[in-house]
Design a protein that fits this description.
- It is a single chain.
- By secondary structure, this protein is an all-alpha fold.
- It is built from two helices and no strands.
- The N and C termini lie far apart (about 65 Å).
- The protein binds zinc ion (ZN).
């Protein structure tokens, strides 16, 4: 019995089929993962700046 069910997953960014196990884990292809991480870093930095501004009130 060939019961190897490979779940098809697609990149959350460009909707390409993810081939590697790692990509399926992250939900992004290697290139899109990098871009996604870069965007995450940018968002965190923006939040950090906002926290900095509010930090003086307490
Ligand atoms: Zn992609």
């Amino acid at each position: 019995m060939n019961n190897e069910t490979v779940e098809e997953k697609y990149c959350g960014r460009c909707n390409r089929k993810l081939k590697s196990e790692k990509s399926r884990e992250t939900g992004f292809g290697p290139v899109c993962k990098k871009k996604h991480d870069l965007e995450k870093v940018t968002v965190v930095e923006e939040i950090g700046e906002n926290l900095d501004k509010d930090g003086g009130t307490e």
